Amino acid sequence: MSATTMTLAEIEALARDALEVAGASPGNAASVARSTRLAERDGIRSHGLLYVPIYAEHVRCGKVDGRAVPGVEQTRPGAVRVDAKSGFAHPAIDEGWPAFTAAARDCGVAAMTVRNSYNCGVLGHHAERLAGDGLVGLCFTHAPASIAPVGGSVPVIGTNPFALAVPDGCGGAALVIDQSASVVAKSEIMMRARAGEPIEPHWALDDRGRPTTDADLALKGSMAPSGGYKGFGVGLMVEVLASCLAGAVSSREASPFSGTAGGPPGTGQCFVAFDPGAYGAAGFQVAIDALVDAISGQPGARVPGARRRAKRERIERDGVSVDQALIDKIRGVA
User: Fold this and answer.
1) Which domain of life does the protein's organism represent (predicted)?
2) What is the pLDDT of residue 184?
3) Which of 156, 225, 282, 314 might form a disulfide with 232, Cβ 3.0–4.6 angstroms?
4) What amino acid positions are annotated as catalytic residues?
5) What per-residue confidence (pLDDT) applies to 134?
6) Percent of the chain, pLDDT > 70?
């Protein structure tokens, strides 16, 4: 299979053009294209160009309103609520961001919820964005149900990731935690299914609750929660914040993020930001630096987020190797 090396700017332009041709407004297309660029920059291919044909398909079939104009309300001094209006999550998050971060600085802590939303891409990037603003970012997003409770076989919650990013005092992130409630992201199993490859035996269960290495059977069954009941508990916490609190549909009711079945997923997100200055910024940064040093100073240990940063440096320098078939598919959409 042939491949072409693309710059990140070329990747962003390709994604933006495809989304605009599919029917997304220029602003909405640009917001999602930036997310695509960031995913490819960090080597997270499952959320990069591979998703662009799905985004375009969903705009065309009506699962996403590509021309939606999000609505923003500040219901309390430290509370911002965004209605994505069945559009992409990224422009809805962007629309609420100024009020949200200003509220965090004014109040010391603030939260923003998003409802009637969609897949928000790499959750850690939103947390890292808060860290870049000098805030401690804690983010949650739920997804269509794919994880059954331990001992059960019917999915109740999605892979429901959470992310935490901490400022480094220099405009970046000292560490970034980004993990789902499942052993792996569902997109990893979808990639294996498309390639006709088996999955690892501990990744998922079939529709009878039995471990399976067949990606197609896994997609019909449920994802395995990371750490058993503890992983399910983390996913349940995310469900409470990103679905129940945000006023979004439940994971059980959300239509899939892939395929054309069902209407808009109607999922949600929840973001919390803390301003360290409200709690003693100097002492906080010293403590974070010491914590990072305690991890990185051990041979073989890695600070959360370090692997992504290493990929980022290499890809920003060398570009991204993209399958020509995928490029042709996206250009066909555009």
Assistant:
1) Bacteria
2) 86
3) 225
4) 46-47, 188
5) 97
6) 99
